[in-house]
Design a protein that fits this description.
The chain crosses the membrane at residues 6-26, 75-93, 113-131, 180-206. 83% of the residues lie in helices and 0% in strands. By secondary structure, it is mainly α.
């Protein structure tokens, strides 16, 4: 057991990993659950959109939609770079973070090794988010090229299905990167106290579940499907 992590720290880390990995595994890989999610509903709507784009003479609006998706993905990917840079700076100056936390009421000031473990976890999370988001960005780019190359006859329907699959996979990686943001914010609570970390991890799972399975948007998309 690392000497700089207390048993409570290790428990909080285990709950955090269970929340993130468990939620992603159940939602993305259990078909009966995945079919009820916003993600699945949007996959179908994107497929319909691209099939409906086949007979269009002008697809500027369709390519513009993909460009919009690329802009938001690019923004989050760029933000990851700033967060990674900030985490590297915090890693190089642990005494600064410890001094700040020491002034926070009820905060449990970690040792230097404990502080580095916290910052390293944030660093790992946002490096993963960066890779997911940049891969999503590339796939949206591929999708825009496929949309631009669609024909205007019924024979182009299979090509539209392929374009939809590429765009759907881009959306899936975008969603994975966005989840990393949510759980990365939960790790900030670990800076204050392991109990706060546990509560933040559980709250993130609750919020993700509420938005993906119990929101008004989810109900509207399922009804429209």
């Amino acid at each position: 057991m690392p000497g700089f992590l207390t048993p409570l720290d290790l428990l909080a880390l285990a709950i955090f990993a269970l929340c993130w990995i468990g939620y992603a595994t159940v939602v993305d890989r259990v078909p009966s659950i995945h079919r009820r999610s916003v993600i699945h509903a949007m996959n179908e709507h994107r497929r319909r959109w691209l099939v409906a784009a086949v007979p269009k003479e002008n697809r500027i609006a369709d390519v513009g939609i993909v460009g919009n998706l690329m802009s938001s993905t690019s923004f989050l990917a760029n933000t990851c770079i700033f967060i990674i840079g900030g985490a590297m700076a915090l890693l190089a100056s642990p005494e600064v973070g410890q001094r700040v936390l020491g002034a926070v009421p009820f905060a449990q000031t970690p040792t230097e090794g404990g502080w580095e473990a916290r910052v390293l976890l944030i660093l790992i999370i946002f490096v993963r988010a960066f890779f997911e988001l940049t891969w999503a960005l590339r796939q949206f780019n591929y999708g825009s090229i496929l949309i631009g190359g669609l024909g205007r006859t019924p024979a182009a329907i299979p090509a539209a299905e392929i374009a939809a699959e590429v765009v759907n996979r881009a959306a899936r990686h975008f969603n994975t990167g966005l989840r990393a943001y949510y759980f990365g914010l939960a790790v900030l609570a670990w800076m204050v106290h392991p109990f706060a970390f546990i509560l933040a991890s559980l709250w993130v799972v609750y919020e993700l579940h509420r938005r993906e399975f119990r929101s008004a948007v989810q109900a509207a998309l399922i009804a429209a499907g």
